[in-house]
Amino acid sequence: MNKPIRRVSVAVIVLIVILLANATYVQVFKANSLRYDPRNDRVLLDEYSRQRGSIIAGNEVIAASQPTDSRYKYLRTYPVEPRAFAPVTGYYSIQYGSVGLEQYENSILTGNDDRLFGQRFMDMFSGRDPRGGNVVTTIDPKLQVTAYEAMVNGPCDGPCRGAVVAMDPATGKILAMVSTPSYDPNLLASHDQNVREAAWAVDTGPDKRLQNRAIEEVYPPGSTFKVVTAAAALRDGKTADTRLTGSADFRLPDSTASLPNYGDETCPGGGTVTLADAIKYSCNTAFADLVLNKMDDGTAKLKQTARLFGLDTAAPNIPMPVVASTVGPIPDRASLALSAIGQKDVAMTALQNAMVAATVANAGVRMQPYLVDKLQSADLRTLYTTPPTTVNSPITSEQAASLTSMMVGSENYSNTGAGSVPIASKTGTAEHGDRTVTTPYTWYIAFGPSTDAKIAVAVVVENGQDGVASVGARTAGPIGRAVINAYVGGGR
């Protein structure tokens, strides 16, 4: 072979190698990014050419696909109280992608999951259009709507901003998960670009309507965290009768500042109170005395107990990811006193606080929370059922019973009205920002009935109607009680 021909041959081989390398790069390494690129109209047409599976709560279909005459063959719809169920379903949008169960159970809903291979084969063999599977949630639809309406119409400055989470303490099933203000996923799923963009402009505004406050936002828990602190004391050998200071203020160690009780008042009972009364009256100074003077190594005991309840650990996927809750650093004794009452750097999601209440209600056993009850094929054949899973036991059944008794005392003190269900609860009022002008976050965690509990609830509200004077008992409490009574009090 002469030299010019050899050079041409080498050049052709090099070009072929480059072509093969480029094809490999595009088809293997770039395949996923190209497939899910929002500009890839072919993928959208393929996705919308098949009937997406339904999302179901109880007997209600809360997300479905309807046939259309447009180039996109199916339209995603949310037919039942869409704003109430939006934190559960999320949205499925041509323009903005997906969130919620629409995103995290996408493989089942589209029919691409390996567990649906048999159905895909039969559909292809029979000439039937491909279909997705169904996601059956743990949500009680009536309870979800009740919780949503309680937030929208609650004792707030306008509709309440915040979240409600309700759980079955014995299994970890999430019975309700509400975030307000909410949005209408039908608008984001519309095939009309103008409708989608108008809704997006509102939903991404300062109200943060698209944010799921139940699992994506952490708040200082305030006095609701005293349940965890009391659990740490019980694990340290203290009892409900352990006596603590009831003074109006407590001088923080190595500091010129003092920790006051709410309203700068002395706790009822005089100079000292029991741990049970400290929970009942929510005495800040008593809990500072508890962790600083009555417990051996209060910092280690508080951190260890909080970790057992789920803080400072990997947050669960339900299957949506949940923001981690934390006690935060406790660098000194003054920080320990503040952390013990749910301030300083303590930060929790509504789901995590519901888990705290549920653990006490379940005799000290913490269950893994979950939102998906089962997965189905399009012909309603069950593909997978979520089993209840025990995580750990942060406290003994005796310690849980002692905490329950304390929380019953707290409920009876904070709730002057008669309820149809005996409830164990703890309220919280968490300061943030400038407390002279900023409305505190108000909390209520509870379970009912107080014996053999069927439901545990956490409520957090950002905008109580009393402004800086807002407290958990008057703001979040009525919402939580409405949810519990609706579930076990004959209101369903």
TrEMBL record:
Highest taxon of the lineage: Bacteria
Record's protein name: Penicillin-binding protein 2
GO molecular function: penicillin binding; peptidoglycan L,D-transpeptidase activity
Coiled-coil region(s): none
CC terms in the record's Gene Ontology section: plasma membrane
Species the sequence originates in: Gordonia desulfuricans
Gene3D superfamilies: DD-peptidase/beta-lactamase superfamily, Penicillin-binding protein 2a (Domain 2)
Domain Penicillin-binding protein transpeptidase span(s) in chain numbering: 162-483
Pfam families the UniProt entry points to: PBP_dimer_2 (PF21922), Transpeptidase (PF00905)
InterPro entries given in the database record: Beta-lactam/transpept, Beta-lactam/transpept-like, PBPA_dimer, PCN-bd_Tpept
SUPFAM superfamilies attached to this UniProt entry: beta-lactamase/transpeptidase-like
